[in-house]
Specification:
Order of helices and strands: EEHEEEEEHEEHHEEEHEEHH
Radius of gyration: 20 Å
Shape: globular
Length: 333
């Protein structure tokens, strides 16, 4: 059974998962898939090699059969599990809790050899609809407080399966880093009675120095103080604290924006590994006037080393204004 343990100095929770340990021992045999391998567990016709799907969008076929265009399945080696009782426990000064949660894989296409940036706009829209559907389902479990959607692309980005996919992890706690972001937004709101992300969007659109692209519903830009070269955020222009509350028009437009930004990054940086994450409010909380959901895309161009780990500072060799100019001027082809 997975377990969460709390660092008594920083307050940071850590997942101790024997299932993940097993995966790390076995992934060379089970998960590293050669380019175009017909036995990839995420390809059409290999549905028996994954746990039973919890969601699928289909053009034909039955559950766990070919004919799908997107599938969501539980991770075979989950960091956390839905099954079991939720307990908190202390051991002297140490706090721990049972590893209740969820860990799911969103298989974004049956086609093994395409990246997310290569998918048609409608297929990327499907991905965001799947995220929304899964969050709305999982948040019914009152034990789950925070759900993170993320993608690891490329070996240096942490992916061990070549077939394009993203992941969802639901947690019984709000991570410390997330809480720090929530608290920072709340301090700004308490002082100015405005959402800081709404103000950022207005300022970036007014100056355009760091804007990559804009639509009626979203602005993509390189943040003023980026941790990494070519770090790019996608921010909805309409204030919403929870991604899952996005409406159909926003989801449809987000498919185009996400595809456009990824294609620009792949063109300018020659198909780099990257990570991206959806930052959204804790799922059991009501709408927050001070918090604004968004996506953060981080190309993996530099390595985090001793100075960064020891200080919490990041050294970024590329000014965001320069990065945004390269991305803004890049086409989508």
């Amino acid at each position: 059974m997975p377990e969460l343990r709390r660092d008594p100095i920083t307050g940071r929770w850590v997942i101790i998962s024997t299932d993940v340990a097993r995966r790390l021992r076995d992934f060379v045999k089970d998960h590293v898939v050669a380019h175009g391998d017909p036995h990839c567990p995420f390809c059409a016709g290999q549905e028996h090699r994954t746990p039973p799907e919890v969601l699928a969008y289909r053009d034909g076929g039955g559950p766990n059969q070919p004919g799908w265009r997107l599938r969501v399945v539980p991770n075979k080696y989950p960091a956390l599990r839905v099954e079991g009782e939720f307990h908190r426990k202390g051991e002297g000064i140490y706090d721990k809790m049972s590893g209740i949660g969820a860990h799911e894989v969103i298989i974004e296409t049956p086609d093994h050899v395409v990246s997310q940036a290569d998918l048609p706009e409608a297929r990327i829209e499907d991905i965001f609809w799947a995220y929304r559907d899964r969050i709305l389902d999982l948040r019914k479990d009152r034990r789950l407080r925070f759900i993170l959607l993320f993608k690891n692309h490329g070996t240096a980005g942490g992916s061990v399966v070549e077939h394009t996919h993203s992941q969802l992890i639901a947690l019984p706690v709000v991570p410390k880093r997330v809480q720090e972001e929530l608290d920072g937004c709340k301090r700004y709101y308490d002082f100015k009675e405005r959402c800081i992300c709404c103000d950022i969007a207005q300022q970036e659109l007014a100056s355009c120095d760091r804007v990559v692209l804009e639509t009626d519903h979203f602005v993509a830009f390189c943040p003023y103080a980026p941790r990494f070269p070519f770090e790019t955020w996608i921010l909805p222009r309409r204030h919403r604290s929870h991604f899952e509350e996005s409406d159909a028009t926003e989801i449809r437009n987000l498919g185009w924006v996400q595809r456009a930004v990824l294609r620009k990054i792949e063109k300018v940086l020659e198909h780099p590994p990257y990570n991206w994450m959806v930052h959204s409010a804790p799922v059991q909380e009501p709408a927050m006037p001070h918090y604004h959901w968004h996506i953060e895309i981080i190309p993996r161009l530099t390595r985090v080393a001793g100075f960064e780990w020891g200080s919490g500072f990041y050294i970024n060799p590329t000014p965001p204004e320069e990065a945004a100019k390269f991305l803004r001027e890049a086409g989508l082809g």
